[in-house]
């Protein structure tokens, strides 16, 4: 007897806001993310504004990037900010020891990052160096960025071309301090966090939200120790979770040439985010029942083998319809847990891991993941509407995952948006939805799907996977019914 797919949307129970910061991004000095993907330099033939490429900024503005984390990643814990200010030709060359051992010329530094954020309309989120930096270095950076005084740091910023201080709302204190950021124990890190965070000062009216380094996936002990020892000194604690299709970091699997085993495996591992968010949240609840502290998932996404022939240290991978489904189901998880998840940053923005945009010289393409972020902008700062979903499983070789994924919200104009993913690669899904506390008169829909889960956009075929209008949903007396095509992401607007 096949399970009937049923959804109840509690339109009468909205309580929490889906922070638009959940739709945040991450750009590291890694491979071709910053250099080429964003920064081409003022003398480049690629159209740019003060060295930042216009096509990429224009595309990113369409997905309303709310916040951008920089400069890493592992790179953050070897980054010395003073290398990246002042005349560019005088900036020192360093070795990027984490990512390919290439030369970092420091042409993209603090001023260029804040310029990028202003061009995007995004909030800056700076990860400071704890692993190989000092408290003084961090203090001076924050003073340089935010102080309106006549202090030496503020004057140096002015000399380097920026009169007014910038606003710096988010600071991350160390990155993956359990790994590339220093291989620390949670006990040691908690003490270091307390020390560093004491000197994160609020200058000239700027107010900083302090984010501690959190766990690697299911390392619940890390969260426990940091919350217990440093919980009252922090505003947010991070979580990193990457989806490895095979589950094996040594042979992760290809981004575009995979069978159903790696398709199902990738979705199954991406869905683990639900458990991670819930269980880390339960630990946080014990130390912070008022939910003052945010869970900040500041690195997430699918991580595959690099494209054949590319530098393994550059983490350049293609992006398929599978990635779009991973984005859709993960963002649905974050939406549903927005009482605790206050920010998330997909890794990474351009040319690295699960990117929004891929570039090749002056050419640029939008990935299926980009389109999901664009379709889901309707959830930004909307009120979460709780949902109950009963659905058939999608089973492969004895392993089962729910066949559907959903979240719903109501925006300020009263429009209800429902984002749905049909994870089954071949079968459509019929869904009956009931709305409690609202009526549906009219439905508009958008659909992202493709002829296969491996389908992706290339520089020769940039529009193979892109959203189209969708009319597969109809109002019913109690809500609506919809037929979701196989391997699809659908966003419905109910009025
Ligand atoms: O996003 C790539 C790397 O993954 C980051 O630098 C690091 O924080 C994580 O291990």
Automatic annotation (TrEMBL):
It is an enzyme of class 3 (hydrolase). InterPro entries: Alpha-L-AF_C (IPR010720), ASD1_cat (IPR055235), GH (IPR017853), Glyco_hydro_b (IPR013780). SUPFAM superfamilies: (Trans)glycosidases, Glycosyl hydrolase domain. GO terms for molecular function: alpha-L-arabinofuranosidase activity. Residues 298-488 form the Alpha-L-arabinofuranosidase C-terminal domain. Its EC number is 3.2.1.55. GO terms for biological process: L-arabinose metabolic process; polysaccharide catabolic process. It catalyses: Hydrolysis of terminal non-reducing alpha-L-arabinofuranoside residues in alpha-L-arabinosides. Keywords: Carbohydrate metabolism, Glycosidase, Hydrolase, Signal. Belongs to the glycosyl hydrolase 51 family. Homohexamer; trimer of dimers. PANTHER family: ALPHA-L-ARABINOFURANOSIDASE C-RELATED, INTRACELLULAR EXO-ALPHA-L-ARABINOFURANOSIDASE 2. This is non-reducing end alpha-L-arabinofuranosidase. It comes from Limisphaera ngatamarikiensis.
């Amino acid at each position: 007897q096949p399970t009937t797919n049923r959804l109840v949307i509690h339109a009468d129970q909205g309580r929490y806001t889906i922070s638009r910061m959940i739709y945040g991004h991450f750009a590291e000095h890694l491979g071709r993310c910053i250099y080429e993907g964003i920064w081409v330099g003022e003398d480049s033939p690629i159209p740019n504004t003060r060295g930042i490429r216009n096509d990429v900024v224009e595309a990113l503005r369409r997905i309303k990037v709310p916040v951008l984390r920089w400069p890493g990643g592992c790179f953050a814990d070897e980054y010395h900010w003073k290398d990246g200010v002042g005349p560019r030709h005088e900036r020192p060359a360093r070795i990027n020891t984490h990512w390919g051992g290439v030369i970092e010329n420091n042409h993209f530094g603090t001023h260029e990052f804040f310029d990028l954020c202003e061009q995007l309309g995004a909030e800056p989120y700076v990860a400071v160096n704890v692993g190989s930096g000092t408290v003084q270095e961090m203090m001076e950076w924050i003073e340089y960025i935010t102080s309106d005084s006549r202090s030496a740091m503020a004057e140096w910023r002015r000399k380097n071309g920026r009169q007014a201080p910038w606003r710096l709302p988010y600071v991350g204190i160390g990155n993956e301090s359990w790994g590339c950021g220093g291989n620390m124990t949670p006990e040691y890190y908690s003490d270091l966090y307390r020390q560093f965070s004491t000197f994160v000062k609020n200058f000239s009216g700027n107010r900083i939200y302090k984010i501690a380094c959190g766990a690697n996936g299911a390392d619940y002990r890390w969260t426990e120790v940091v919350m217990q020892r440093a919980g009252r000194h922090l505003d947010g604690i991070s979580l990193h979770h990457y989806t490895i299709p095979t589950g094996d970091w040594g042979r992760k699997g290809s981004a575009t040439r995979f069978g159903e085993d790696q398709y199902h495996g990738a979705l199954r591992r991406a869905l683990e985010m639900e458990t991670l968010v819930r269980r880390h949240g339960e630990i946080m609840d014990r130390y912070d029942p008022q939910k003052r502290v945010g869970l900040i998932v500041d690195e997430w996404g699918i991580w595959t083998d690099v494209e054949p022939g590319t530098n393994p240290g550059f983490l350049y991978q293609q992006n398929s319809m599978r990635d779009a489904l991973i984005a859709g189901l993960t963002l649905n998880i974050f939406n549903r847990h927005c009482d605790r998840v206050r920010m998330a940053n997909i890794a990474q923005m351009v040319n690295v891991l699960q990117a929004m945009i891929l570039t090749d010289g002056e050419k640029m393409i939008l990935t299926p993941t980009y389109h999901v972020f664009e379709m889901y902008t309707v959830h930004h700062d909307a009120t979460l509407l709780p949902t109950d979903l009963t659905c058939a499983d999608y089973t492969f070789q004895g392993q089962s995952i729910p066949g559907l994924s959903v979240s719903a919200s109501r925006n300020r104009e009263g429009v209800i948006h429902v984002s749905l993913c049909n994870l089954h690669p071949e079968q459509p899904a019929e869904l009956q939805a009931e709305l409690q506390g609202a009526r549906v008169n009219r439905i508009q829909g958008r659909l992202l799907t493709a002829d296969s889960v491996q389908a992706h956009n290339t520089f020769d075929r940039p529009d193979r996977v892109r959203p189209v209008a969708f009319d597969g949903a109809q109002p019913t007396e109690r809500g609506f019914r919809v037929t979701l095509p196989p391997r699809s992401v659908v966003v419905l607007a109910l009025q």
